[in-house]
Amino acid sequence: MRPRAKKLVWIAPLAIVAMAAFLALGGTVVRLLWNGLLPDLFGFPAVTFWQALGLLALCRILFGGFGMGGSRRGGRAEMWARMTPEERERFRERMRSSEGSST
What is the pTM of this model? Predict the structure, then answer.
């Protein structure tokens, strides 16, 4: 076997175990937080592990997050660095005019 193939033999099962552990931990944390806070504060019913896992998935769908990829490339500093001086000035002017019109 080639060295790369040997490495993949260990990485794939390890990744599956890590994902299962992440799901188990995430579901447990959501269940504990929900059951510890919401029934007493708002009278919501307690949830099971599977319901908590569903809530976790729903939040991921609705809000994204968990640090998994993301569609945003770079940040504001990168965007600013790619702009020409003329584009930066136009951007500043637009920001100034939008600030004045909102008040």
Answer: 0.56
Q: How far apart are CA 3 and CA 52, in angstroms?
A: 41
- Is residue 37 within 8 A of residue 53, CB to CB? The reply is no
22-76 pLDDT per residue, tens:
999 999 999 999 999 999 999 999 999 999 999 999 998 999 865 555 555 667 7
**Helix (H, G, I), strand (E, B), or coil: what is residue 69?**
coil
Q: At what angle do helices 3-42 and 49-63 cross, to 10 degrees?
A: 100
For 26-35, the CB contacts below 8 A with 24+ separation are 26/53, 26/56, 27/52, 27/53, 27/56, 28/52, 30/55, 30/56
